[in-house]
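Tip: read the tokens left to right.
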């Protein structure tokens, strides 16, 4: 482990010890003024820059927009990717961006923090309860009602899928509303959604046709790259290729979607697609029949494009990060085989055919 990584771990532990009690007693105080509860302007805090983590808050943003149709939503985030993700969300008003590298842009970093005091909100929500920056950014703004993201223990039995990082903020938010004597929405948590326009989807179709040359067959796409230990080896993908290629090559186009690093764990055995534009990639994904993806931000992008997605997990917990909705599911490669992946792919493809 590098010195930088060790320093970051120590920093996070120190900050967590200093901030974990921030807002702990706020619920009881807010209950006293529940009769004043009216929401027109919301701030959601998720100061993170990773593609996957930003896509994973789209269900909460949808939930709030559906609960309060006339509200506007500001997002407190890090980095430059969030405006791209939420550009077609009409309720999202202002995106307040912390610099990705605060030490190099320290004056701008401080300026962004101080800007939180400029706007008064009706409701401020911290998405991740263990985020020190999230708790502090919930504390700073002026608002009558603030939810710091802490769990409601009684929800563990009500929602068997509450561990999922995209779902538990939705379930906790619903319970928060109940505690304030409001009526929340019911049913399943919203799915991830990047909200592609018809024009974007049409362009994605054209981009896919450039690779496959025609659309007489549907397309199965593979995303083979991931960071660190989540990345399966070339040998692993070669063995998997030898199983899926002869099975699907006649009925489907098979392509590989490449990461920004332009790395192919399949060694370019399949036709490839490359783009640095997140929405272009999502639009091409939306035109695929099925995507098999290593656990990564691109796996979440596939899910957010509304395409059935099989996520491959070996390191992180699928109960927390797995794709869901639209026939999506996951494989735990620690306990399941490549043949199991094929079986799951077959089931999804058959379910798609049955639903048409």
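Filled-in amino acids:
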């Amino acid at each position: 482990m590098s010195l930088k990584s060790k320093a970051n771990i120590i920093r996070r532990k120190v900050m967590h010890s200093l901030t974990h009690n921030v807002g702990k007693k706020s619920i009881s105080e807010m209950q006293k003024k529940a009769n004043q509860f009216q929401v027109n302007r919301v701030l959601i805090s998720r100061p993170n820059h990773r593609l996957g983590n930003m896509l994973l808050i789209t269900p909460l943003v949808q939930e709030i927009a559906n609960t309060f149709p006339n509200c506007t939503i500001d997002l407190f985030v890090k980095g430059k990717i969030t405006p791209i993700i939420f550009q077609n969300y009409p309720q999202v008003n202002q995106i307040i961006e912390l610099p990705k590298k605060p030490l190099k842009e320290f004056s701008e970093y401080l300026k962004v923090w101080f800007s939180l005091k400029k706007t008064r909100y009706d409701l401020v929500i911290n998405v991740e309860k263990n985020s020190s920056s999230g708790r502090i950014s919930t504390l700073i703004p002026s608002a009558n009602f603030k939810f710091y993201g802490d769990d409601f223990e009684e929800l563990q039995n009500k929602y068997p899928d509450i561990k999922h990082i995209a779902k538990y903020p939705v379930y906790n938010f619903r319970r928060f509303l109940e505690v304030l004597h409001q009526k929340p929405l019911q049913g399943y948590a919203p799915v991830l959604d990047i909200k592609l326009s018809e024009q974007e989807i049409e362009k994605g179709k054209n981009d896919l046709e450039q690779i496959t040359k025609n659309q007489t067959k549907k397309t199965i796409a593979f995303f083979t790259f991931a960071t660190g230990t989540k990345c399966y080896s070339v040998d692993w993908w070669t063995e998997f290729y030898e199983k899926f290629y002869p099975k699907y090559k006649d009925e489907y186009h098979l392509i590989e979607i490449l990461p920004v690093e332009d790395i192919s764990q399949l060694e370019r055995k399949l036709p490839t697609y490359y783009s640095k534009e997140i929405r272009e990639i999502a639009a091409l994904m939306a035109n695929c029949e099925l995507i098999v993806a290593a656990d990564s931000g691109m796996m979440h992008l596939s899910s957010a494009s509304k395409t059935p997605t099989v996520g491959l997990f070996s390191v992180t917990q699928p109960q927390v990060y797995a794709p869901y909705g639209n026939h999506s599911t996951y494989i735990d490669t620690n306990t399941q085989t490549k043949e199991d992946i094929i079986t799951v792919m077959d089931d999804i493809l058959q379910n798609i055919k049955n639903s048409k």
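The first strand starts at residue 41 and ends at 45. Residues 43 and 111 are 18 Å apart (CA to CA).
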